[in-house]
Each structure stands twice: as structure tokens, then as C-alpha cells.
Amino acid sequence: MESCEIARLPEELVSAALSLTSPRDACRAAAVSPAFRAAADSDAVWACFLPLLADQPPLADGEALLACGKKDLFLRLSGSSVLLPGGLMSMWLDRETAAKCYMVAARELSIAWRDTPQHWTWIPLEDSRFSDSAELIWVCWLEIRGKIHSKMLSQGSTYAVYTVYKLAEEPDGLNFPVNASVSVGGSILASKVCLQRDPHMIHPEDVALPHQRVDGWMELELGELVCEAGEDGDVSFGLSETESLYCKSGLILQGIEIRCKN
């Protein structure tokens, strides 16, 4: 028998209160009592954590997710990514904040010399989210650019932008700093990054270095951005080395990821 007075609150009131919290708080509330569990698991709560237009996101095979409870849908979208129409962008939800996150495939990026086989080639990889990835054969002029509309992001959220890639067996020229940039709303954040850690080199402290991901790929942060309320324009990002013009090879690019930074 429930003796706690809070357990006697109407389910609608509890649901309304929980919808103003976060997915994590709603899951914790479900452990308070059976009455709280009913409210915490309700569609009324979890619909508030699902962004607009995400009720039926398309899958890689073009089929929509089957109708299910809002909590199950949220857990599905925050547990793994789904491909958007065209197969050149994937989307998922941040489990803590419900913010929308994306990866833009290499095919969707602007890459200098991408259509010249002696410079870039396209290869399928089983552990990639997309049908193929871009492998750098050799270039002197390295330039990779991408963009996404700010309205696709969650307002008020802080994002970080990452290049997601692997290195071939014998990469060359990727252990030197290159230019990275992230811009939104007329504001440009420029920095120096390095695609390959080199134990024989001392990298400057202000040069960002890559990290290994649990999925087997590497990631390199290009910068951060805040999606302000009312922002209406492109978020642009990229990396380049077009000054020293030394030979570069051995980069295998899956895409560029824009995800919530907790």
C-alpha cells in the first residue's frame, strides 16, 4: 500500500512535471513508485523529448519505424543512428538531453579533387554507417568542407564537430597541423588540428589531436558551436592545408559528425 502522499498525485500532473525535466530524470522517476512509473513511461512525457519531425524517421532500407510507444521510440533513436533519405546523413538523439545529432557522409562533403581517381577513391567498409568512404591516395591541396542547416539542430544546445576517419597502413603527411573551422551566424571559430599522432614529434599544446572511438574509428574535434534560438542559416565546418602543399595520403574519411557536447 502506498503511504507516500506524493504517490497520490494525479498521473496527468506527474506527467506534466516530468515532461519539463530530462530523459534521465524521467527514467529515475520511474523507480519511485508504480504510480510514478506509469506517468514516467507515458507517451505524454516522452513525446516532449522527441524533436519535431522525428516521429517516423526513415531507416536505411527506406521503411519508417513501426508505430510504437514514445519511450521505445526515444530509446531506439538514442541507442543507434538512422539513415535519412538519400543515405548521405544519419541522425540520432543524445540520450541525456534529447538533442538531435548527425553525421554527414563523405559523399555529401565538398572535397577538393574528390572526382579524380589518382587523388581520391571510394571504398565500401562494413563498419561504416554509409555505403562508402573516401580514401585519400595523395594530394598536396587538402580541403574538406561541409554544412548543415541550423534548423536541423536543437536550439540552445552546445555541439562539437568531429571528423570521423581511419588511417591507412602507411599514411603520409598527416602528422602536421592543418586548419580547422566551424562557423555559424557569422561567427567563425578557427583552430589547428592534427590528423595523426606522431610519437616522434612534439605537438603544440594548442593543436587538437585525434582520439580512438569505441566503434573502431578515430575522431578529431574541429570546434564547438551553440545553436541559438532563432538561428536560421548554415552551420559550416571543414579542415584544410593549402599553404605548405606537401604530399598527404592515407586518410580514410567516413564523414563529419555534429553531436551534442555534454
Q: How much β-strand is present in the residues?
A: 35-45%
Query: How many structural domains does the protein architecture include?
Result: 2
- Radius of gyration, taken over Cα atoms and rounded to an integer in Å: 22 Å
CATH topology of the largest domain: Jelly Rolls
Please describe the structure with a list of short key phrases separated by commas or semicolons:
about 260 residues, mainly beta, Monooxygenase, Jelly Rolls, 2 domains, 9-stranded antiparallel beta sheet, 6-stranded mixed beta sheet, about 15% helix
Quick rundown:
This protein is mainly beta and 262 residues long. It has helices spanning 11-18, 23-29, 34-40, 43-46, 70-79, and strands at 82-83, 89-93, 100-105, 110-111, 120-123, 133-136, 142-149, 158-172, 178-184, 187-193, 207-208, 211-212, 218-226, 234-241, 249-260. The chain folds into two domains: 5-93, Monooxygenase, CATH 1.20.1280; 100-260, Jelly Rolls.
Describe how the helices and strands are arranged.
Layout (H helix, E strand, L loop, with lengths): L10 H8 L4 H7 L4 H7 L2 H4 L23 H10 L2 E2 L5 E5 L6 E6 L4 E2 L8 E4 L9 E4 L5 E8 L8 E15 L5 E7 L2 E7 L13 E2 L2 E2 L5 E9 L7 E8 L7 E12 L2
Parallel strand pairs: 10-11
Antiparallel strand pairs: 1-2, 2-3, 3-15, 4-7, 5-6, 6-15, 7-14, 8-13, 8-15, 9-10, 9-14, 12-13
Helix pairs in contact: 1-3
Describe the protein's architecture and organization.
- This protein has 262 residues and is mainly beta.
- It folds into 2 domains: 89 residues, Monooxygenase; 161 residues, Galactose-binding domain-like (Jelly Rolls).
- It is built from 5 helices and 15 strands.
- Strands 1, 2, 3, 5, 6, 8, 12, 13 and 15 form a 9-stranded antiparallel β-sheet that branches.
- A hairpin with a 2-residue loop joins strand 9 and strand 10.
- Helix 1 packs across helix 3.
- The model has no long low-confidence stretch (mean pLDDT 87).
- Pfam families: F-box-like, PP2.
- It comes from Triticum aestivum (Wheat).
- InterPro entries: F-box-like_dom_sf, F-box_dom, PP2-like.
- This is F-box domain-containing protein.
